[in-house]
Design goal:
The structure is a single chain. Helix 1 packs antiparallel against helix 2 and helix 2 (88-111) packs antiparallel against helix 3. The longest helix is centred in the first third of the chain and has 67 residues, at 2-68. This protein has helices at residues 2-68, 88-111, 117-157. The chain is elongated, with a radius of gyration of 27 Å. It is built from 3 helices and no strands. By secondary structure, it is mainly α. 84% of the residues lie in helices and 0% in strands.
């Protein structure tokens, strides 16, 4: 009986140690994923700020051209330019897929056993990509909806 108790106690200690290591690896992977996410958000904010500055520069250039022309029609209703490129749904889905794949692969590799790191990374990347795509698409759809509502309210006020 003592042998079984000693063996069971040793197994419990080993199991707790492995669980703590797995939790620590999971936390490290989550921290890396959060850092990657924060960098992506920062770079997106930088790109958006550059676009706003570029748009403001183009708008001021166009307004000086309109004022200097000898057009007798002083109808200065500025209509917003047609949006070029991808809509927010597509952007959100792509950004979510990218960050989901990276985060899922890091988490899958960190949590899996030593022999199965590659397999864990592949599975984690696939699951993370799918979840990230769905979440990003949903966020982008919400942004599109808000932008449309804002545009409709601007059009109604005219």
């Amino acid at each position: 009986m003592k042998k079984y108790l000693i063996i069971f106690g040793a197994l419990a200690l080993v199991a707790c140690n492995n669980t703590k290591q797995a939790e620590e690896r999971g936390r490290e992977a989550a921290n890396r994923e959060n850092e990657i996410r924060e960098r992506a958000i920062d770079s997106m904010e930088t790109v958006n700020e550059n676009r706003r500055q570029h748009h403001a520069a183009n708008t001021s250039y166009q307004s000086t051209d309109n004022n200097s022309s000898s057009n007798s029609n002083n109808n200065n209703t500025t209509e917003p330019a047609k949006k070029k490129g991808m809509n927010n749904k597509t952007k959100g889905a792509l950004i979510g897929a990218g960050s989901g794949i990276v985060g899922g692969a890091l988490t899958g590799a960190a949590v899996s056993k030593d022999k199965d790191k590659g397999k864990g990374a592949l599975i984690g990347g696939a699951v993370g990509g799918a979840v990230g795509t769905g979440v990003g698409y949903g966020i982008g759809a919400n942004e599109d909806k808000k932008a449309k509502a804002k545009q409709d309210s601007i059009n109604k006020s005219k």
